[in-house]
């Protein structure tokens, strides 16, 4: 309800402000015949046309009017291609393969914003995942499977967005683990192998992020499951999540929780606490996370510690993590990894890494990339992996 009131308040505030149109935006045709004579209207349009003729090409691109006479919002097209060669051993065979998404998932996206009034922007982001190794779509072939959201943002009151969005629990993993330029949930992070990916992105979600106040930032998130309209099942799939982050100089910490109504009678809970400190010569990150959803069934906790050491025009990640299964004996696992990334240019990064997953008799965890899949592991077998890859931004 607070989110709705905020949006209403902002809309009301904007309506009371006189928003000056730039010279590149054509006059509103709805005024024609009301408070302007025909001659004045023709002159107005001629002036706008002359300005377009004399403007630079870049200015014209941003000011192309839509057919209804309203200037279109500038669009930023962006993306990245990330691929890696892997030589892996799954306890039975040595396997060589080409994978997509070692450090980051390959993608193409469209984003933009529009100043709706002083201090308030409308924004949107549409992001499609893809597999660079075979050209297929990622995230189950959903068109904009990575992200699809829009909202309003103000420096004084924060940001409110709706759509398919990252849950705060997932972002706590991405931002706080890894230490490098690309953060966590990539090849080399233990959490990337142990995290329950079903709660990473939530459809039909409403997200509100406060501005930073005295070092604190609050993220409140609610997702509507919309799986059934039958009485007793309407709330199935609903998600509530939040995070509280604190930043002070080189120190950062976050606590986050997510609850999902998995069935009419069973809900799952995920919790994470993480902290980092940047000593300049090395950045240390620690994390503890619990995952419990008896409908899957799932009940475990894992911890991770990583050190990121800047080395010249690159950096070395040292990572170690363990998972403890509370539902089954001899089902724990531990992961250790070294990863080096070299920032060849501002847009191109070369990386290599070696990872080792050690499973107990009833565990079969594998080694993931950011979106790259693990090898098929039989319970009790271990996985070893060596990779060489590249990430190109565009």
Mean pLDDT: 85
Order of helices and strands: HHHEEEEEEHHEEEEEEEEEEE
- Spans of at least 5 consecutive residues with low confidence: 1-13, 15-38, 52-65
The overall strand count is 17
Strand content: over 45%
CATH architecture: Beta Barrel
Number of helices: 5
CATH topology: Porin
State Rg: 25 Å
Overall body shape: globular
Across the major sheet, the strand order is: 1-3-4-5-6-7-8-9-10-11-12-13-14-15-16-17
Secondary structure category: mainly beta
Can you say what the CATH homologous superfamily is? Porin
The profile of the biggest β sheet is: 16 strands, antiparallel, barrel
CATH class: Mainly Beta
Helix content: 10-25%
Distance between the termini: 40 Å
State the domain count: 1
Describe this structure in words.
The chain has helices spanning 2-15, 38-54, 57-62, 168-176, 190-194; strands at residues 76-89, 94-100, 107-117, 120-129, 147-154, 158-166, 201-209, 216-223, 239-248, 251-261, 267-278, 283-293, 298-311, 314-325, 333-343, 348-359, 383-393. Strand 10 and strand 11 form a beta hairpin. By secondary structure, the protein is mainly β. It contains five helices and 17 strands. It is globular. The two termini are 40 Å apart. Residues 1-13, 15-38 and 52-65 have low confidence and may be disordered.
Helices and strands, with pairings:
Blueprint: H1 2-15, H2 38-54, H3 57-62, E1 76-89, E2 94-100, E3 107-117, E4 120-129, E5 147-154, E6 158-166, H4 168-176, H5 190-194, E7 201-209, E8 216-223, E9 239-248, E10 251-261, E11 267-278, E12 283-293, E13 298-311, E14 314-325, E15 333-343, E16 348-359, E17 383-393
Antiparallel strand pairs: 1-2, 1-3, 1-17, 3-4, 4-5, 5-6, 6-7, 7-8, 8-9, 9-10, 10-11, 11-12, 12-13, 13-14, 14-15, 15-16, 16-17
């Amino acid at each position: 309800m607070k989110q709705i009131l905020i949006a209403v308040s902002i809309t009301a505030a904007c309506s009371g402000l006189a928003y000056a149109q730039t010279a590149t935006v054509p006059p509103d045709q709805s005024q024609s015949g009301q408070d302007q004579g025909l001659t004045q209207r023709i002159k107005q349009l001629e002036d706008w046309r002359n300005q377009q003729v004399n403007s630079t090409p870049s200015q014209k691109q941003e000011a192309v009017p839509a057919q209804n006479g309203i200037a279109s919002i500038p669009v930023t097209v962006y993306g990245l291609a990330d691929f890696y060669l892997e030589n892996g051993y799954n306890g039975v065979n040595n396997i060589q393969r080409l994978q997509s998404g070692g450090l980051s998932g390959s993608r193409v996206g469209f984003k933009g914003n529009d100043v709706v009034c002083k201090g308030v922007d409308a924004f949107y982001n549409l992001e499609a995942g893809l597999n660079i190794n075979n050209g297929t779509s990622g995230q189950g072939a959903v068109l904009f499977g990575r992200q699809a959201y829009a909202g309003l943002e103000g420096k004084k009151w924060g940001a409110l967005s709706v759509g398919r969005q990252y849950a705060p629990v997932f972002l706590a993993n991405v931002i706080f683990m890894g230490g490098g330029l690309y953060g966590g949930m990539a090849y080399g992070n233990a959490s990337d192998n142990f995290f329950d990916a079903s709660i990473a992105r939530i459809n039909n979600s409403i997200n509100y992020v406060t501005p930073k106040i005295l070092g604190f930032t609050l993220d409140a998130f609610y997702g509507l499951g919309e799986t059934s309209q039958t009485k007793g099942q309407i709330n199935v799939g609903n998600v509530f999540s939040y995070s509280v982050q604190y930043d002070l100089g080189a120190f950062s910490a976050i606590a986050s929780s997510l609850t999902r109504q998995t069935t009419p009678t069973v809900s799952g809970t995920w919790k994470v606490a993480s902290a980092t400190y940047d000593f300049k010569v090395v950045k240390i990150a620690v994390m503890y996370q619990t995952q419990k959803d008896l409908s899957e069934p799932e009940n475990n906790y894992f911890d991770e510690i990583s050190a990121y050491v800047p080395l010249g025009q690159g950096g070395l990640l040292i990572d170690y993590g363990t998972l403890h299964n509370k539902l089954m004996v001899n089902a724990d696992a531990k992961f250790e990894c070294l990863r080096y990334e070299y920032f060849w240019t501002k847009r191109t990064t070369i990386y290599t890494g070696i990872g080792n997953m050690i499973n107990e008799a009833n565990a079969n965890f594998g080694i993931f990339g950011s979106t790259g899949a693990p090898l098929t592991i039989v319970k009790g077998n271990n996985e070893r992996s060596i990779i060489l890859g590249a990430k190109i931004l565009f």
